[in-house]
Write a structure and sequence with these properties.
By secondary structure, the chain is mainly alpha-helical. Helices cover 64% and strands 4% of the residues. The chain is built from 24 helices and four strands. The two termini are 48 Å apart. The model is unreliable at 41-55 (pLDDT under 50).
Amino acid sequence: MTLVSRYIFGGKIKEDFVSFINCHTYFYNNQKSNQEEQINDNEESTENDENTLIEPKLTGDNTVGISTDGCSVMTSTVRGAVKYIQSNATPNAVYSPCSNHCLNLSISKSSSVMSVKNSVGIIKETVKFFNMSAKRNFVLKKVFGKEKHLMSLCETRWTERHDSILIFKNSLQYIIKSLNLITEWQDNDSSVKAYSLLNSLTTCEFIISLFTLSDLLYLTAPASKLLQGIQNDLNFAEDCFKDIINVMVNRRSNSDIHFKTIFEESKKLMEKLDVELKLPRITKHQIHRPNILSVSIEEYFRISVYNVLYNHVLDDLKDRYLSKKNLTVYKLLLLIPKSVVDIKSDDINYIAEIVDKEYSYLHIEKQYLTSELELWIAKWTRVKNEGGHIPITVIDGLDHCQDVLFPNIKTLLLIIGCLPISVASAERSFSTLRRLKDWLRSRMCQDRLNGLALLHVHKEKEVSIDNIIERFSKHINLDGYLKTMMWKRNEFKTCE
């Protein structure tokens, strides 16, 4: 488990790696220390004391948010890690889901569409077919020339899932040409598998499903990359997802116009590949496949693939980002100067009630906050009328928020800026873990692992060698160390 701290310092948002936590060792040591305390309350566990000094402690007063991925181990309301941390260490922390992971989960709802699910499965098998053999991969690269190579559909890296499908769509002609060459081989395994994949790729349903899914990914791929930025705040994430939802709603409402361009593009490719444009077999007895009675082929795929795909993804996005729990946090974004100029009188009372209920540990008086809000609105309304610059981010708003005049609003703006929107920094630290703890260093202790990880992640920090030598000398007996080294040297000479 990795721990990353997000905070505001020097007018900038920073996310710094703190340490890796061995959950198994931590739980085992706590169990062991609890058993020893039950046997003898007067005895203290030295091992537990050492862990207490090393492990980072979260203070409940200063921790305002927790962000994790969306797996049930973390987010379960019964025994999830977030629930445990909020109950024991940081009761004031608000859970802020990772925007990238939620976007990835929403796009995964496309697997509910049978034709899209089958198409993604065919893509995985095709990429696997070429990657499992250097000879097949050589044929593919020779046909590709200077074009991009195929990418596997990684389950954890969000942007790579986008890129792999988009690259596959743009390289479909080269892939089919490569498979045609492999079908002529004498190797039965390769030729038979290539022939099977070739029949799957050269179908009308696969090509139209691939182009429809790619149309959606072209919209979400830039957002997935942008949301990984450290300087982005909750306001940026909200604006980004509102724009995505609005565009998707517009495409869904005008599906007959938008899908026509997708259908024409896929139709041109099918003509090049000599793929027959036809309807799939419709059977009344089968209920687990789209049996839609349509006038034309275009209408059939628009209803059964395009509309269903956008419906599933849109419903999931709205459930995740427009829920009551998220709207409660997003209501505080009205404090940003760009939004405060359009705030209504009802919103002032609603914000004061939210702060009084959800942020009671700040001990902010409701009437005092209401007065501050009125002054804050009056200030930026005046600036807008005078034609002045109105900040659009939390950091810019903090620069114009005086401590004496707006102490409570500044505290709330700091909380908004510190709430994480992505766990990309934590994912990057796991890449560091993979470099440090390999097969040759698998038995590395926790202290050394954290030390090397800190040195690797924070490369810009200068390390004083003199301080390291001084610290090292305090923790060892230099006389005994030198005697041991001289003894080993003499023993080595005797062996020679």
